[in-house]
Structures are given as structure tokens and as C-alpha cells.
């Protein structure tokens, strides 16, 4: 959930994202996957980085493009609730270069924050029905978080106006909840992050609204499988690039595109190193027991090229292709990884 008015030099030479209004470098940070800067190698470019036109063209037919609704005022947070450092500034914090490590005590706090995030997400998912607005989901999420004595991490982060991200259909990420009602056949990613006792817990899931066609169900299913395969690669001493490798192997079987957004370290700081790629990559570094970060692949039926609405946040595919995303916060252990946001 990164918003930059004057962005730093891009991670790679060029970007597939046409920025409208403010430039965006969101919570997954913004990576790029163009022909000139692709990191996955020539042999994998077709499935990972290029437009998967065979999926995209058919599923757009008969579906109205996503249109923004009315955004209601920002909801208040009681004074007694502990706030993250960025609250009240609408300032976009710098990405912290340190990889967040935890001892026994801080792991207890991480588990508590992540368990709350998971419960909130599970509750939000029960609201996904035709005619329900994303603003209603935001209000319910906000209330559940503050009732638990926590702060909704997205609220005010870089000026984000709501307490949860709701990304519908072709919205890749950072959809702002508004008055638009969900419709039969929609899919929606709900991205919940809570700040509890000084620690962030971060998770998301894509839900089906009403009767959804089989190709869309498959996209959602494969996206969740990709996340779980990425998590299965995690273990003390294993290279970070193994995560993208596992995901790439699976997505290649289906011909979807991996959207150019990536995971991040999370803990007392919302966004930090390490950067987690969801495709084949050559990033250096190895996982260490005690680290926490997110794995959150976003898959598209068509193009990975995106544009950002003039709200500075809502990123959508230029060809209207559907997207699905799943996210967990994980703790690296000696023998593997613990999913902290599993409900």
C-alpha cells in the first residue's frame, strides 16, 4: 500500500503501469515484468510476463467495466487505541531496509495480531453477497478491529481513506471501498491488516459473489494454490528466490499471468525488506528463522499491464482481465514456515 507523489527510481528500467494522478508503489511494492526488464528468463516469459490473451478476451465479454462509486468519510478510531507512527500524517513511510526478526516474546505479539487479522477477514468474507456494498464491508471491518482494541493499518497510510482494501474483478489491488454494490458473478479480494499492540498482521483472500463461472473459479483456486506452494518453499537457510520458483512452476501449467506486485516484510513495521517475488527471479538472500513476511501472489486471466485511477490507489488491468489474490503472513522456522494468519 505504497503511494509516492515523487517516486524513487523504479526497481527496473520500465514499468507496465500507466499512472493516473499520483504515482503508486503499493504495499506489495510495485515491480515490473516487461520484456526489457523481465527477471524470469526467456523460457518462462510466455506464461509469467506476457499477456495471456487466450484467457483474457473471453472472460471480459458480457461484464461491465468496474466503475467507482461514492466514497464515504473516513471512520474515526477511539483515542485509547494505540496508533502506528504514520497515523495523522497521511505520510507515506519509507520502505524499511531491515529484515524484521522476532524473538520468543515478539512472536507472541505477531501471532496475536495475525490471528485477529484472520478472524476479521473471515468475518468480512461472510458479507460477500450480491447487493452488499464494499463500503458496508469496510464499516464492519473497521468496527470489528477497533472493538478488539486494534487499529486498521491501511487507514491513513499514505493518505489511504479506508480501513480495508476491496478489489473487485479487474481491480488488481488497493480498491477503495465505496457505494458500489457487489453483483452476482463478481469476485472480490478483501485485504485486511490490523495493528495490535505495536505489531501488524496482514492477510487477504479472494471471494466469489453469488454464481461465478467455472473459468473464474479456476483462477481463484489456482491463485490460492500458488500462495500455498510459495509458502511450502519457506525454511531457514533457503533462498528467497525459491518462493517465486515454486509459484512459477505451478502457474505455468495454466497459462495465467502473474501481476507485477510483490510481498514484503511485516511486523512492528508495516512494510520492510525482504521483497518477495512471485515469479522466477535472481534476488540474493536467504531466509532466517524468526523472519516474518507476506506471500501474496496476484494472478490475471489476461494482461499484467495496469493503470491507476486518479484516486492514486486503485490499480486495474488495462484489458479488463479478472484478477485473484491470496495472502498470508508467515514466520520462517528451522523446519519450514508457520502461517500466522491461518484461521
UniProtKB/TrEMBL annotation:
Cofactors that this protein relies on: Co(2+); Zn(2+); Mn(2+); Fe(2+)
> Which positions in this protein are listed as binding substrate?
174, 271
- State where a divalent metal cation 1 binds: 191, 202, 327
Q: What family classification does the UniProt entry report for this protein?
A: Belongs to the peptidase M24A family. Methionine aminopeptidase type 1 subfamily.
- Listed EC numbers: 3.4.11.18
Molecular-function annotations in GO: initiator methionyl aminopeptidase activity; metal ion binding; metalloaminopeptidase activity
What is the protein's given name? Methionine aminopeptidase
**What does the record say about how the cofactor binds?**
Binds 2 divalent metal cations per subunit. Has a high-affinity and a low affinity metal-binding site. The true nature of the physiological cofactor is under debate. The enzyme is active with cobalt, zinc, manganese or divalent iron ions. Most likely, methionine aminopeptidases function as mononuclear Fe(2+)-metalloproteases under physiological conditions, and the catalytically relevant metal-binding site has been assigned to the histidine-containing high-affinity site.
Q: Which domain of life is it from?
A: Eukaryota
Residue ranges for the region (Disordered) are 60-97
Note one Pfam family from the annotation.
Peptidase_M24
SUPFAM superfamilies linked: Creatinase/aminopeptidase (SSF55920)
Cellular component annotations (GO), alphabetically ordered: chloroplast
Q: What are the entry keywords?
A: Aminopeptidase, Hydrolase, Metal-binding, Protease
Binding locations of a divalent metal cation 2: 202, 264, 296, 327
Query: Do you know which NCBIfam families this protein is assigned to?
Result: met_pdase_I
| Biased segments, Basic and acidic residues type | 77-97
* Domain Peptidase M24 residues, every copy: 109-333
Quote the catalytic activity from the record.
Answer: Release of N-terminal amino acids, preferentially methionine, from peptides and arylamides
**GO terms (BP aspect):** proteolysis
Organism in which the protein naturally occurs: Triticum turgidum subsp. durum (Durum wheat)
Its annotated function is as follows:
Cotranslationally removes the N-terminal methionine from nascent proteins. The N-terminal methionine is often cleaved when the second residue in the primary sequence is small and uncharged (Met-Ala-, Cys, Gly, Pro, Ser, Thr, or Val).
Amino acid at each position: 500500500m505504497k503511494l509516492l507523489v515523487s517516486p524513487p527510481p523504479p526497481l527496473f528500467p520500465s514499468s507496465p503501469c500507466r499512472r493516473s494522478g499520483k504515482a503508486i508503489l503499493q504495499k506489495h511494492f510495485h515491480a515490473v515484468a516487461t520484456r526489457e526488464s523481465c527477471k524470469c528468463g526467456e523460457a518462462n516469459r510466455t506464461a509469467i510476463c506476457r499477456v495471456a490473451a487466450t484467457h483474457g478476451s473471453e472472460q471480459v465479454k458480457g461484464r461491465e467495466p468496474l466503475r467507482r462509486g461514492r466514497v464515504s468519510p473516513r471512520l474515526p478510531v477511539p483515542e485509547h487505541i494505540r496508533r502506528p507512527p504514520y497515523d495523522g500524517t497521511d505520510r507515506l513511510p519509507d520502505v524499511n531496509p531491515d529484515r524484521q526478526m522476532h524473538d520468543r516474546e515478539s512472536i507472541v505479539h505477531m501471532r496475536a495480531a495475525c490471528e485477529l487479522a484472520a478472524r476479521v477477514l473471515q468475518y468480512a468474507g461472510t458479507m460477500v453477497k450480491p447487493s452488499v456494498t464494499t463500503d458496508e464491508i469496510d464499516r464492519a471491518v473497521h468496527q470489528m478491529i477497533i472493538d478488539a482494541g486494534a487499529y486498521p493499518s491501511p487507514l491513513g497510510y499514505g493518505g489511504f481513506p479506508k480501513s480495508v482494501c476491496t478489489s473487485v474483478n479487474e481491480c488488481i489491488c488497493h480498491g477503495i471501498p465505496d457505494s458500489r454494490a457487489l453483483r452476482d458473478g463478481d469476485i472480490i479480494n478483501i485485504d485486511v491488516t490490523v495493528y495490535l499492540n505495536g505489531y501488524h498482521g496482514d492477510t487477504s483472500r479472494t471471494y466469489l459473489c453469488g454464481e461465478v463461472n467455472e473459468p473464474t473459479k479456476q483462477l481463484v483456486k489456482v491463485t490460492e494454490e500458488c500462495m500455498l506452494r510459495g509458502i511450502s518453499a519457506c525454511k531457514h537457510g533457503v533462498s528467497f528466490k525459491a518462493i517465486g520458483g515454486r509459484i512459477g512452476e505451478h502457474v505455468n501449467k495454466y497459462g495465467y499471468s502473474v501481476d507485477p506486485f510483490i510481498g514484503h516484510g511485516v511486523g512492528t513495521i508495516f512494510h520492510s525488506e525482504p521483497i518477495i517475488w512471485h515469479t522466477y527471479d535472481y534476488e540474493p538472500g536467504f531466509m532466517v528463522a524468526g523472519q516474518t513476511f507476506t506471500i501474496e501472489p496476484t494472478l490475471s486471466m489476461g494482461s499484467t499491464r495496469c493503470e491507476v485511477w486518479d484516486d492514486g490507489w486503485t490499480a486495474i488491468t488495462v484489458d479488463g482481465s479478472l484478477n485473484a489474490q491470496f495472502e498470508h503472513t508467515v514466520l520462517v522456522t528451522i523446519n519450514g514456515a508457520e502461517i500466522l494468519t491461518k484461521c
